[in-house]
Automatic annotation (TrEMBL), chains A, B:
Pathway: Cofactor biosynthesis; NAD(+) biosynthesis; nicotinate D-ribonucleotide from nicotinate: step 1/1. Its EC number is 6.3.4.21. Residues 15-142 form the Nicotinate phosphoribosyltransferase N-terminal domain. This is Nicotinate phosphoribosyltransferase. GO terms for molecular function: metal ion binding; nicotinate phosphoribosyltransferase activity; transferase activity. Keywords: Cytoplasm, Ligase, Magnesium, Manganese, Metal-binding, Phosphoprotein, Pyridine nucleotide biosynthesis, Transferase. It comes from Peromyscus maniculatus bairdii. GO terms for cellular component: cytosol. It holds the Pfam family NAPRTase_C. The lineage of its organism: Eukaryota, Metazoa, Chordata, Craniata, Vertebrata. Gene3D superfamilies: Aldolase class I, nicotinate phosphoribosyltransferase.
């Protein structure tokens, strides 16, 4: 268990936190409260993007952070430089000795469906320490969950068959934003990422071929040091690919009604160079000059020359213009050219598209009859433009075993007090009916038993009888020790898709979905009422 | 120079790149083009947020990345695992030997005003290598520049006197997104950040006091181990702060017409605990229960008790409700209470506010007569919701000394070919008139000389006579060596504010600003025309 968490990234240091965590730490320490047993819950108040679900993600990163949490001398010295000069040195000794050996975490497993108010993490331990953990935990969970949820929505739009490629590294909030986006958009349902580091460190399938710069870097006057290519079967002589392509160019141009001078020679040289490097994975980027008059005939010439040697091109990519319509036209040309030259595989060469694809454009590209096969999405998966932040919060729910509640005059910002358990009620078909929050000390609800609960936002209780009951929160870290191996990214990805398949379609609608009910037990509801009325804290 | 760049962050590894950079690398290598001299430009096509300027930022991070760029064995092995199994081992040897000793970078200095099409970076070196650098450089520059620009806009709205605190770490795209946001929102004009790591590693002033959890963690039954506080002057006996606060509570409640039981005892205990830890920097967070009936009288009691000992409270914070109106009311109460108890400093205690403050709310809070002094902004500075990505691109402009251009049928995506120089024309008052792009080989324009130029987007040339001419791009890295010490963050921050002060207000308007002109020299314009018409590449 130790091994699998090590070495993944070195970003998250204990000082990656808000200064007020440190000033509060001193306040707790001075008040003799530093070691009081406390519990915080990390949750969100509203599902992102106007939807009705979210995917919980980031747990692995949290575990990695907690297990290595330790203030270094330089960290403590920096804090001393920004805290009052007469601060008791005992406080800094206390900070130096901190680690997570007294911290226990329960959590929604990575990839779980999460709903408002249900804790993604419950963190308990000494008050000073678990307070200090707030900002890094929020930072690790919020964006991971946001981008996983965003990816899941895009997957719902695209349907199961389109291949979705995340390619937003350059549009992210710096290096780690890009890394997090790549990992968690895969978890949320994408097929692959362009981000090589996400492949290296987390096993995300990586994909990529060539950019316009590659194409435009060639003028056509270059002479490849070795233009010879052996057949795929290795049987038979190697051929001069450039020469073979030039022969095919004449046939293709003649069939398409183009002059052989029209297709750009530099683009063709680039395609040949790429084909020599990747004969089994040749892809053409068609729109550096003109798709119809240059990119397409050049691609076809190279693909057909490769085909003679037994290699099949793996795709074309479009990065500008009307992607849906061009895909249609290109598929038509592939069919016609494939028939003309008796190359049947040509008609099913995958067509990949990219260029600022958002939910709306993805809907169009995923419509029935679309000839698009692969969709590269950057900005709109990574930046989550509909809602660029998840709004997770981390709230104190108990101190010294006594429930705590933030009352405030803004009812939206009130918290649910007390250490809690959470359960999911399922119908007889395994679909999700409702999530229940209750006090930790209450007996768990039982399948087949009727229960009166208070749905959040409702003024009246209702009665539910679940066919099955699943506990939602798993013990992950107990007194600093990992309790079980963390699931792999692929396991979490599968779990997320399975969970989504059990959610009623009404909750999965992307616009105006039916709200998924989260309810409080009668006891929890009574505690909220009592504390709201100013009862004893 | 070496020292100052080291150890800042370990995030940016060479594999933090798109896979297609590696596949293209193999393509270049196979085509014998790997070591061709190439030049790329990094620029944006449109100013973010509908504005008319951007601030260039991220250069220091780029230099740090370039100087340490080196593929490790594990990196090369990973690439080998995703490239064709029969790839020539010579390619991987080539990768292992790569470093930036052949790379030269010219750039807009950190904090410069940047406009569409003017390169933020010009990167030249061996084609394969400078292609590989694309994604990490984009990743490092785009978001840094976006958030610096966003911060500059927020500063323009707030005016020079409000203190702006960035506090968005928990809303960022993971750890490094938060770090980048903290550093570059400071560069763009914020006063401080909550992010302790940005203070430790980059010297950003850090700020923070206490959260609701600190307040709600106290019930009021706690007994501080040592409630005694000595006077600020250290002359005279220590007093029991709790007892003194309780005496003041009676006087304050009586004056405000409240029962002494109304203010929450836990909140008061929290304030006392904080005051004991920070007697010289006491701040009250007022809205955990009720501002008027609890937070305010509790704050006043503690502030007045501290005042008797010679300490002055440094502020209050509001985090919900109508912030402008509450600030008005609180200032009124401070005045009245200050007069009543003859504590004149009370009326000028700074009022800090936070809670999802965006451009619109900031405009309201910054209006004339506002009593708000400090404004904490998280989500809307960090996530840049108006435009969460800068859209920078990195385009090939020359290979082997010959200009390159992406033509494409989408005119917006066409590039400006050739190695270029850039100049800013200034009026006699030092204000910025126009930026000029010309070919590197052209003689620099001279002050006082009339010149015919082609403003981008215009169909006709125009004539300009600058009073002064400033070259825009500085040589930063020459054959892998830093050419001069990089400016400090504070120097860049000052430079950004100075630059903004020289920009005509018409270009600084946040809605519908006048577009700042960027023009091409006649020679550059002629080259574009010639290449667009299919002239020799």
């Amino acid at each position: 268990i130790a091994m699998e968490l090590d070495g993944e990234r070195a970003v998250v240091r204990p000082l990656l936190t808000d200064l007020y965590q440190a000033t509060m730490a001193l306040g707790y320490w001075r008040a003799g409260q530093a070691c009081e047993a406390a519990e915080f819950e990390l949750f969100f108040r509203q599902c992102p993007f106007g939807g009705s679900f979210a995917l919980a993600a980031g747990l692995r990163d949290c575990m990695c952070f907690l297990r290595s949490f330790r203030l270094q001398d330089a960290d403590v010295q920096f804090l001393a430089s920004v805290l009052p000069p007469d601060t008791d040195p005992g406080f800094f000794e206390h900070l130096r000795a901190l680690d997570c050996s007294g911290v226990t975490v329960r959590a929604l497993p990575e990839g779980s469906l999460a709903f408002p108010g249900v804790p993604l993490l419950q963190v308990s331990g000494p008050l000073l320490l678990v307070q200090l953990l707030e900002t890094p935990l929020l930072c690790l969970v919020s964006y991971a969950s946001l981008v996983a949820t965003n990816a899941a929505r895009l997957r719902l739009i695209a349907g199961p068959d389109k291949r979705l490629l995340e390619m937003g590294l350059r549009r992210a909030q710096g290096p780690d934003g890009g890394f997090t986006a790549s990992v968690y958009s895969y978890l949320g349902g994408f097929n692959s990422s362009s981000n090589t580091l996400a492949g290296q460190l987390r096993g995300v399938p990586v994909a990529g071929t060539l950019a316009h710069s590659f194409v435009t870097s060639f003028s056509g006057s270059e002479v490849p040091p070795d233009p010879m290519l052996a057949p795929a079967s290795s049987e038979g002589p190697a051929v001069d690919l450039t020469a073979s392509v030039n022969l095919w160019l004449k046939r293709v141009c003649s069939y398409l009604g183009l002059e052989v001078q029209e297709p750009h020679p530099g683009e063709r040289a680039a395609f040949v160079a790429y084909a020599l490097a990747f004969p089994r994975a040749f892809q053409g980027l068609l729109d550096s000059y003109s798709v119809r008059r240059s990119g397409l005939p050049n691609f076809l010439s190279v693909a057909l020359a490769l085909g003679e040697l037994g290699y099949r091109a793996v795709g074309v990519r479009l990065d500008s213009g009307d992607l849906l319509q061009q895909a249609q036209e290109i598929r038509g040309i592939f069919r016609a050219v494939g028939a003309q030259f008796q190359v049947p595989w040509l008609e099913s060469v995958p067509i990949a598209v990219s260029n600022n694809i958002d939910e709306k454009e993805l809907t169009r590209l995923s419509q029935k009859g679309s000839e698009v096969n692969v969709i590269g999405i950057g900005t709109s998966v990574v930046t989550c433009p509909k809602q660029p932040s998840m709004g997770c919060v981390y709230k104190l729910v108990s101190v010294g075993g006594r429930p705590r509640m933030k009352l405030t005059e803004d009812p939206e910002k009130q918290t649910l007090p007390g250490s809690k358990a959470a359960f999911r009620f399922l119908g007889s078909d395994g679909s999700f009916l409702l999530d229940l929050l209750q006090l930790a000390e209450e007996p768990p609800p039982k399948a087949g038993q009727e229960l009166r609960v208070w749905p959040r936002g409702a003024r009246e209780p209702c009665t539910v009888k679940p066919a099955q009951v699943e506990p939602l929160l798993r013990l992950c870290l107990q007194q600093g020790q990992l309790c079980e191996p963390l699931p792999t990214l692929d396991e979490s990805r599968t779990f997320a898709q399975q969970s989504l398949s059990r959610l009623n379609p009404a909750h999965k609608q992307l616009q105006n979905p039916t709200v998924y009910p989260v309810a409080l037990s009668e006891k929890l509801r009574a505690l909220v009422d009592s504390l709201s009325a100013g009862g004893p804290l």
